[in-house]
Amino acid sequence: MSRVPFIILLISPALSTGAEVERKHWDESALSVSRRCAACHQKEYQQWAGSDHAWAWRHTNEQLDAEAFAGQRIRAHGMELEMTRDARGGFQMRDTATGKVYTVGGVIGREPLVQYLLRWKDGGLQTPSAAWDVEKKEWFDVFRDDALQQARGGAQRKPGEWGHWTGRGMNWESQCAWCHMSGFRKNYDIATDTFKASWQEPGITCIRCHKVSDTPDAQDGCLVARADRKLTAAQHDDNCASCHARREELTPDFSVGDAFDEHFRLELPKIPGVFHPNGLQLEEDYCETSFRLHKMGRTGVTCYDCHDPHSGGVNKPTENDELCLQCHGTNKVVNGVPAPQVGHNKLCGGKAMPCVECHMPRMTYMGRDPRRDHALHWPDPRMSLELGVPNACLNCHKDKDHQWCMEYLEKRYKVERLGKYRQRFRAAGHAMQGKGSVQELVAAYKAEEIPAWRATLLGLLAQFPLTPELQALALGATQDADALVRAAAAELLGGDAARKALADKTRSVRHAAGWQLFPNLPKNHPVLHEMQQTASHQADQPTGAMQLAMLASAAGKAATAELQYRRAVERDPASAVARMDYAVFLARQNRPVDALRQMLECAKEHPQNAEVQYRLGLSLIELGQYAPARKALQKALQADPKHAAAAQTLNQLRRFQR
């Protein structure tokens, strides 16, 4: 299969060499800056023009898209969509049940799938779950096999939900565009709830990785000043991570050379359902977290050690392990750490297997897009048996099970080297399963050399009471060189103990402390101002609305707080957190009946959620409805027998009613 289904050939008017150079890009006319770079950097431009980065966004095109809009129909997200053309040849999706027509306003990707963005009433674009398979020439639902549908026994996402294609979770400007465009601004207007997006160039172009200016350098005419050409390896990696990471966006202002942790909060494996307990990707988590959790990331191996920055492909072949052996076959020293020397792997009965098949197994996302995990783990079937994590052995040995794999590996290989890895995995896994202990987590933390794992273990300790031992541990962690660890320490300390972190040099750490202290901060505190900026930046999503509500409530602005709580609930009506927090706010405003209404709606949506049933019980007690309150508390304990607050409240209620 050709990587590009159709190629548009253009001659770049920006070239000054006199030679006509063939280009392989869908629309060079939109690349006002990058074409100027191409005049001197033809080789790099050619490599980039055939990359996935170059095809991260485009307008519709007759030759590229006509085949996908020839009257096909697909059921996705509970709707039947028909792919049609209008009288002028424009591309549309029509809801056959209602007759409503959605116009295609942009295209992302090229293989193995293409997604078409639909124009929306708020001036933005939505990303439908229907996608085009460029190899099989068919439409499919990217969420057909996602975890949410599996949890529902195959039931579709419902209209009104955050994750339905018409919901905020599938909004292009908010959720996708920053990583698909160069110089993108969503320009969200909170008053009108609309977008007026702008960008410099479509796709990921030269200006996303280089500090390009309009004024050429005086000495050599380059659009990148000499001082801006000397980025460190860490700066290059942070630039890659700004997109290739599962993260919260704290500001819209990240630019080349900035530190990742100044503008983003990285997601770590601290809650079930996002990552596996050993750091392997579970949801669509991208690369950065997994790589930071591995020793290679700690010792300074960078994206560019394996990937070409312009083509995006690997520097050397992986089929014969040449890529891995460039370090692991030579004892190459990286930042003072020698790479362990290994030969070609003869693991499976003498058959050589490429390193990546065992250490970077593929997982399929979006239904049909296999990507390699960057956790770089040893396959460990024992952890699969203990913690339920996957191992790469079964990707080939499909007729075997974890027990067989464990016995084979432990008989053939010395697995003592896995001890320190297993210590952290067990500690994290048990804590995520609700079976952990302070002692296990503390022991793993003290033995841990990788900052991202230290931050993860500190985060998991937050579920336990803050004893003097934990406080001392967290206070020491506030001096850690890594921002992830300092932020986790601030969250674990909480309250006034986190106050010193308000002056931290990194924004993500200041934010972590700020959310522990915001009700008691002076109104003019600079961290409070930063938090308000972040919340306003995220205001188009329920998370941002919730943050604005909390900040307004703490400032005594009840009307503003209620408006934002309502917006959070409207944007994600199925969210238990949004409704519970809104109910707490209403109760504090002496509106117990309104609070109960929110909790009843929440309990209807989440009947098996122990915390929801507990909060419902509290709302009923507030109104003197003791019998239904007792039932709600009993439901909470049925869902979670270890819910201490529900058990205590139920016992108090029983004693009160005697």
List how many beta strands DSSP finds. Answer: 20
Low-confidence runs = 1-23
Helix fraction by DSSP (H/I, runs of at least 4): 40-55%
Strand % is: 5-15%
Radius of gyration: 27 Å
- Give the N-to-C terminal Cα separation: 76 Å
What is the helix tally? 30
Largest sheet descriptor: 8 strands, antiparallel
Quote the average pLDDT: 90
Structural class: alpha+beta
What would you call the shape?
globular
Description:
With 658 residues, the chain is an alpha+beta fold. Among the domains are: 75 residues, no CATH class; 134 residues, no CATH class; 118 residues, Tetratricopeptide repeat domain (Serine Threonine Protein Phosphatase 5, Tetratricopeptide repeat, Alpha Horseshoe). Helix content is 40%, strand content 11%. The strands form 7 sheets. Strands 3, 4, 5, 6, 7, 8, 9 and 10 form an 8-stranded antiparallel sheet that branches. The protein has a two-stranded antiparallel sheet with strand order 1-2. The protein has a two-stranded antiparallel sheet with strand order 11-14. Helix 17 runs antiparallel to helix 18, helix 19 runs parallel beside helix 21 and helix 26 runs antiparallel to helix 27. The longest helix has 14 residues. The radius of gyration is 27 Å and the shape is globular.
Explain the layout of strands and helices.
Elements: E1 9-11, E2 22-24, H1 34-38, H2 42-49, H3 62-65, E3 73-76, E4 79-85, E5 91-95, E6 101-108, E7 113-119, E8 125-126, E9 130-133, E10 138-141, H4 147-151, H5 172-175, E11 181-182, E12 188-189, E13 194-195, E14 201-202, H6 206-209, H7 233-241, E15 247-249, H8 260-263, E16 264-266, H9 288-292, H10 295-299, H11 303-306, H12 322-328, E17 333-334, E18 337-338, H13 355-359, E19 362-365, E20 369-372, H14 381-387, H15 393-396, H16 402-412, H17 419-432, H18 438-447, H19 451-461, H20 468-477, H21 483-493, H22 507-517, H23 526-537, H24 542-554, H25 558-571, H26 576-588, H27 592-605, H28 610-622, H29 626-639, H30 644-657
Antiparallel strand pairs: 1-2, 3-4, 4-5, 5-6, 6-7, 7-8, 7-9, 9-10, 11-14, 12-13, 15-16, 17-18, 19-20
Helix pairs in contact: 14-16, 17-18, 17-19, 18-19, 19-21, 20-21, 21-22, 22-23, 23-24, 24-25, 25-26, 26-27, 27-28, 28-29, 29-30
